[in-house]
Amino acid sequence: MRIRIDSSNATPVFEQLRMQILGLVRSGELIAGTKIPTVRGLAEELKIAPNTVAKTYRELEQQGVIETRGRSGSFVASGGDPSRDIAARAATEFVRTVRSIGLDDEQARAFVESALKGADGV
After folding, report:
1. 22/39 Cα distance (integer angstroms)
2. Residue 91's Cα: distance from chain center in Å?
3. Mean of all residue pLDDT scores within the chain
């Protein structure tokens, strides 16, 4: 997740973080089912207080942008379109799988392109 906090900005850190995560979801850069960093992990990465990240996550969860699954962590929530949600989750799982077996993004794209070409008769 590419997030930058500007300490010279008059906008509170909480709001900067909330708006950037929301922007990543709206742009499609973060899709349904994507796991987001832990509160502690993101706080350390951004060098901000964990309570600030926790407050942001709580508000995003109330807005339906993210969902927390207990010890499993926090994830981008469904966008409301079931077909898009299923496709987004499948894509997220595909990326997780190919990376776990050592394939790079270029190889993963090649498999997707091949599958799309071969799916014409399905």
Report:
1. 16
2. 12
3. 90
One-character DSSP codes across 34-93: -EE--HHHHHHHHT--HHHHHHHHHHHHHTTSEEE-GGG-EEEPP-S-HHHHHHHHHHHH
Tokens, residue 65: 């942008």
Identify the burial level of 78 via C-beta atoms within 10 angstroms of its C-beta, where 0-12 means exposed, 13-18 middle and 19 or more buried.
Answer: middle
C-alpha pair distances (Å), 27 with each of 20, 24, 30, 47, 103: 10, 5, 8, 25, 26
What is the four-CA torsion angle of 54, 55, 58, 63, rounded to 10 degrees? Answer: -140
Q: How large is the average pLDDT for residues 45-55? A: 97
pTM for the model stands at: 0.68
Q: Residue 99's pLDDT is what?
A: 93
List pLDDT tens digits, range 82-96.
Answer: 667 778 889 989 999
